[in-house]
Amino acid sequence: MNRPRLIVIDDEPDIAGFICDVAEQIGFVTEQFNYAGLFKDHYNGYADVIVLDLMMPGVDGVEVIRFLSEIGCNARLILISGFDPGVLHSAQQLAAEQGLNVAGSLSKPFRYDALYQLLSGLSITPKSLARPVSTEPPSAGELREALDHDELMVYYQPKVGLNGDCLVAVEALVRWKHPNRGLLGPDLFIPTAEQYDLIDDLTWVVLEQVMTQCRCWHDQGLTIQVAVNMSAHTLKELELPEKMGTLVQRYNLEPSQIILEVTETTLMQELAKSLDILTRLRMKGFHLSIDDFGTGYSSLVQLYRVPFSEIKIDRSFVMEMVNDPEAATIVETIILLGHKLNMRIVAEGVETASCRERLARLACDQAQGYLFARPMPGDEVFAWFSQHSNPERG
User: Fold this and answer.
1) What value, to the nearest 5°, has the Cα angle with vertex 157 and ends 154 and 160?
2) In whole angstroms, what separates CA 250 from the centre of its chain?
3) Running DSSP on this structure, what letter comes out for residue 236?
């Protein structure tokens, strides 16, 4: 049986051993290094989780973070430190900015329960079981062919209400069923679509599939909202509100069933034109969601300018809120602010029951993440929905 591998890097042998003991109870194979320099010399890239102490003699944790970034490490990273919590928080931000997959942090001394909860809440496929994935982005020609030959497909991730965990909406997430490379995620081909002016065509392919699926669900007795990510390029089309209105009419759907998700970066590219288009979309009955909220430089200004009906709290805050007081304060503040503005609040990146419970106590409206479900094909949503909730039928 293949078990996930965990490495601890901590100059205190007792603490490193304690972490290994807890991890082994959960099912990890463990290894510990009491000298960061030794880890750098011997690391072979096969860890699934790395627990890293920041304060170490010789080579410190920040230097290890830089090393892991340089080698393209994709292990889940947990940071620990007995230093000032602000330093731990800054190190998390540094690791995330350098492309590392930060799973959480713990301040020393930490309790058994906190460590066990953090480690057991991780969703991991051991590297020995994972298929090698090509990271070479596809060419514009390949993507053009994919659009012409219907190789793009939409997956859906449930968004559940935190009162009763009933399914209330899904987010549409595009995938590419590549004939040679298997199923590709959007991070691999969306940049190509944007660079070669194919993003508008791609967006309309997604919207057509979403409308078809919504009509199918409706005919089965399931009426839910579907959120669709909108690109900056598409939001420059002044005819977009009319085109969207025609689209929903053609499928005999209500505009209120569609949530258009927009990032702050998208808004800032051509602000006046975006405000024109988004205001008219809202007037036609479509819902507007500001995505990745809190990561931009003018979040409050955008809430004031644009008629949003929903705020999505960025996963970088949600995933850290249980162990990071600063992240928890930001999440709580966003929820309070959104409710004051009569907006629905959605937390993304929910992976643990403790996170869900904390969000419920803060009166967050909806949540999505691996705790509830991974993205799935449209024909699996109805079955998932039937097993997990008793929603309003339409």
Assistant:
1) 150
2) 32
3) G
CATH number of the domain to which 54 belongs: 3.40.50.2300
Alpha carbon distance 376, 167 (integer Å): 14
Token representation of residue 23: 């991890």
Please tell me whether residues 50 and 158 are part of one structural domain. no
> 156 with 231, same domain?
yes
* Span 178-207, pLDDT tens digits: 888 888 888 889 989 988 999 999 999 999
In a domain, 131, yes or no: no
Residue in 124, 126, 123, 137 with CA at minimum distance from that of residue 184: 137
**Residues 105 and 160 grouped into a single domain:** no
Contact 220, 386 (CB under 8 A): no
Q: Any idea which residue has 């057509």 for tokens?
A: 208
What does pTM read for this prediction? Answer: 0.70
Residue 270 near residue 236 (C-beta atoms within 8 A)? yes
Confirm whether 72 is domain-assigned: yes
| pLDDT tens figures, 334-381 | 999 999 999 999 999 898 888 999 999 999 999 999 888 889 999 899
In this structure, what DSSP letter does residue 223 have? -
Tell which of 67, 91, 120 closes a domain: 120
Collect contacts of 300-305 with beta carbons under 8 A, ≥24 apart: 302/264, 302/267, 303/337, 303/341, 303/343, 305/271, 305/275
- What single letter denotes the amino acid at residue 195? Q
What is the span of the domain harbouring residue 249? Answer: 140-388
> What CATH number is attached to the domain comprising 274?
3.20.20.450
The span from the CA of 129 to the CA of 76, in Å, is 16
Count of the separate structural domains present in the chain: 2
391: helix, strand or coil: coil
What are the residue numbers of the active site?
348
